[in-house]
Amino acid sequence: MMGRSHAASGAVVGLALAPALGLDTTEAVPFAVAVAGYSIFPDLDCGGATASKLLGPLTGALSWLVCRLSAMVYRATRTDHRSTSAGTHRHLTHTVLFALGMGLLAWSTALASPWVVAGWLTFGVLSAGAALSDLAALVAAAAAAIPLAARTNPLAALGDMQPWVGLAVGLGCLVHLVGDGITVSGIPALWPVPIGGKTWHDLHLLPRGWRLHTGHKVENWLLYPAFVAGAALLAWPALQPVLEPLTHTLPTV
Q1: What is the CB neighbour count within 10 angstroms for residue 240?
Q2: Are the C-beta atoms of 144 and 33 separated by less than 8 Å?
Q3: The pTM is what?
């Protein structure tokens, strides 16, 4: 699945789950934007992906390290020695274990300081915008910043977000797995659990004949527009209570 579809589907999942998690209107949208941004994070194992090019040499170097690590782990744990795969793209970062590990990393580091929370959220906002479009980058940034700006103490608001930052990161990675799991290639989501004698067994979430081809018509003309429409519908109730006080401050003509 393409980056923009991953991000849009992440936004839908984040907005849909926010009320169930007890997040108020000042947190629901930042949470959803973070989920959307980290929905493209597993593609760091591909040098040409949006996540790998996001911050230029910085994320480029991170992508190189992730690829090398993925290849090393693949060679050390594979059971099919006839495979010619390099063990990079759609391997280590496309596993449930990786998603849980990233969520745990984000949660544990976010407890250190609200500024760490800001760092995780900023990367998520930038990722979401880059995966969609330049306009979407502005919308995502505003959607995440307005609820913070509405608080009298934005730093304290960031502190309130510490408990769910790890969940947003881990959930975003899991959303990515689902998106790639419905494609024809599949992903080794359950590594290192051996399935059919293979630790890197490609798991498919749809039966043969229903699996999607990345970037083809079904994704571009059906799924992606549906995700965008769903995100817009879910975001409006969350943003309305925040935007309403701001509209009263605008000068009338």
Answers
A1: 11
A2: yes
A3: 0.89
